[in-house]
Amino acid sequence: MFPRFPSRASIKSRAQSGNLTIMAGLAIVPLAMIIAMTSELVSLSSEKALMQSAADAAALSGAQNLTLVGASARQSTEDVERFAMAQVGEFANRATVSFNASQGNDGSYTVDGLAVRPSFFGDLVPPGGFRIEVTSIAESMQVQPLCIIGDDASSGGKAITAANNSGILARNCLVHANSNFELTQNATVEAGTPRATGIASGSGFTPAANSGALKVNDPFKARAIAPPADCTSVADGGKKTIATGAESVTLKPGIHRTEYNVTGQATLTLDPGEHYFCKGLKLRGQGRLEGDDVLLMFTGGNALDASVSSSVSLSGRQSGQWAGFVIVATRGNYANFSIASSRVDKLLGTVYLPMTKLLVSATGDVAEGSQWSVIVARNIHLTNTARLVINTDYEGSPVPVPIGVGNQAGGAGTPLRLRE
């Protein structure tokens, strides 16, 4: 039997089938490349939007803080750059990402961003990899005073807290927490801008508080705080109780190494000048503390403690190195300052407690009679029905505002805008 050879038609059919297979295989390569390139272009568009969003957020925060912390203590550009990096998240693991922030003389803030990630054929198409470049320029449109800083920047800390029916009334002011800002129960805060670098929690904010803000540096961090001489340079006066109106006492400026307990209906009057308390100052009963053009500086573990029925009326220094300040604690002072009285009608000036807590537990308004007030403390805690009232009548005040706070901080509230 002779072998059967394929027919000419069969050979031709197989050849055509093989050619189609080869052609289909060849067609798959560019099709796959087109699909891959399309997918990459979609990813690039999304990544550029992410980079632009990060630059916008950082520029807006930088523009706000540029004026908020004052000319002598501006927010560092490194902080703004870190803030931008935090916004891109895990994209920084897939690309080389960098941001460069700069401050403009006109009050603007610029953030430039660059991301480079691998491209096709070992970064040959395009050469060096895909480049994503973005720029954002922001500027503030409105000035707002900086009135309260809670400076506890510890992880998970609560710089400002308010509980029960307490609150803060600071309609024209920025109220800022350098960690968390917490309202519980029926506590309220009404401010120009309430905000926190951590989390602002609670339903009592008007307007709604901002979380995740940049840190506001302590505007007085570089200031030395100490009496002109050591407390041991004066005689130890022990404890002195001032109990009746007839026993009211007037103190000359200087170093006081006596623990004063003002009670009954007595009054302790401070003459104009700088008063350095090396021991505590307590107000009990209907005891009263008053003084104009004064600074009260508390050293060591000493503090002011004003009980429920006592009263306080103080205005800060009008000139000298402590102009604009009314109450100050030294940096080694961790004692709590307590205001339980609603008869603290005037705290005109800046209260600066860099390492201490201000406890306000009154049953009414506090500091409402002050033309203006500023509070910078490590922690601020309000409870009961206390309401801390912050006014901003700077122009009519004999007490000047220190550089870095109030209207001397410049202030940048809403709205901000992106110039480009």
Description:
With 420 residues, the protein is an alpha/beta fold. It folds into 2 domains: 127 residues, Roll (Nuclear Transport Factor 2, Chain: A), CATH 3.10.450; 273 residues, no CATH class. Helices cover 19% and strands 37% of the residues. It has 4 helices and 28 strands. The strands form 2 sheets. It has a 24-stranded parallel β-sheet that branches. A 4-stranded antiparallel β-sheet has the order 1-2-3-28. Helix 1 packs antiparallel against helix 2.
Could you outline the blueprint of secondary structure elements for this entry?
Layout: H1 8-68, H2 77-88, H3 91-94, E1 96-103, E2 108-117, H4 120-123, E3 130-140, E4 146-150, E5 158-162, E6 167-177, E7 180-183, E8 188-196, E9 200-201, E10 205-206, E11 238-242, E12 249-251, E13 254-256, E14 258-262, E15 267-270, E16 273-277, E17 281-283, E18 288-291, E19 294-298, E20 304-306, E21 311-315, E22 325-329, E23 337-339, E24 344-360, E25 365-366, E26 373-382, E27 387-389, E28 416-418
Parallel strand pairs: 4-6, 4-26, 5-7, 5-26, 6-8, 6-27, 7-9, 8-10, 11-14, 12-15, 13-16, 14-17, 15-18, 16-19, 17-20, 18-21, 19-22, 20-23, 21-24, 22-24, 23-24, 24-26, 25-27
Antiparallel strand pairs: 1-2, 2-3, 3-28
